[in-house]
Design brief:
Layout lengths: L2 E3 L9 H4 L20 E5 L32 H13 L4 E5 L9 H8 L11 E6 L4 H11 L3 E5 L5 H8 L5 H13 L6 E6 L8 H9 L4 E6 L17 H10 L4 E4 L9 E5 L4 E5 L12 E4 L4 E3 L6 E4 L1 H4 L8 H17 L5 H7 L13 H4 L2
Helix pairs in contact: 2-3, 2-10, 3-4, 4-6
The structure holds iron/sulfur cluster.
Length: about 375
Amino acid sequence: MPRIIPISAHTQPPPALLRVAQEDLQGPLLDQRQRPLRDLRISVTDRCNFRCTYCMPKEVFGKDYAFLAQSELLSFEEIVQIARVFVERGVNKIRLTGGEPLLRKHLDVLIGMLKQLTDAGGKPITLALTTNGALLTKKAVQLKEAGLDRLTVSLDALDDGIFKTLNDVDFPVQEVLDGIQAAHEAGFEKIKINMVVKRGVNDQEVVPMARYFKDSPHILRFIEYMDVGNSNGWKLDEVLPAELLLQGLAEAGMPVTPLAAHHTSETASRWQHQGGGEIGLISSVSHAFCSQCSRARLSTQGKLYTCLFANEGVDLRAILRDPDKQNSSEEMGLLLRQTLHATWHARTDRYSEMRAENTHFPTQERRKIEMSYIGG
Ligand code: SF4
């Protein structure tokens, strides 16, 4: 079980926090590699209605799995209280994830609350959400009306049999495609479609997916299969490196050319089909992008993680849920700011770089937080 650093408000904050001077608690926040804090991913539930074999395999997340009780989840008010402190220090984009975020009741209310936050320049923050699309037909209009800006849908195959094998709950692909169409009609013009490519499982779907989305307004992104968490039994030879994927597209008559990045911390490299749409490659195994990584992750229970492959989190919820109610909201706010500052400032994460540098890197031995708990 990953170790949690308790920061209970009514005990003396650790010295590291006390050394954070008030004047340091404002402006952009940089880590030990001068990477600014810009993106916050918030997991709003640890539950999912799929059992994707590379993320939440049934063998581990079976019917007896103890998911978090509602009372353990951050409330919407607590999420906004924490998010506000991140936005003050430079976050301008928040992504809602899970598990499957659309399973969290009244999510549109949270979206409306988060949309009130403005970044350092006074601009409303950008609010995005990643979903498996199963509930999208029902929820798309509500999400758009609540103020959601961007949508990403995970879709790992067009072939119904392969899709059902991967989601492992027999969910038909057509319903996700209908959800994407409904979201487009609701006003999400350019939807990102994330396909995790696992060699020997769905790599034969790369070309059909590219053909299907080539002339659509949506951006298909191919994600190299990663050793996230401890449950998917990851092997390096099940990864289809970006170069081979691009070669496969070219051999299928769909060569692509590179496009410039939108900004330095973009996770996907951008490519363009001849006369067609855009695709993206998220290649953290063959092309680690830790040097520009500006992403923090907040778990469903309010723990701060500074890397997808972290095994330690910082408990921010304990600051807000001070059992003895000794701290005023100002003191809680200050402790949140000090904790965020100290945690990000001390950050040196570079897991994917280390994996790339050392072919014997202990990917399986190292305990890591589950992706379904902190979102991709
Ligand atoms: S491995 Fe960690 S530090 Fe590197 S890009 Fe991924 S989340 Fe960022």
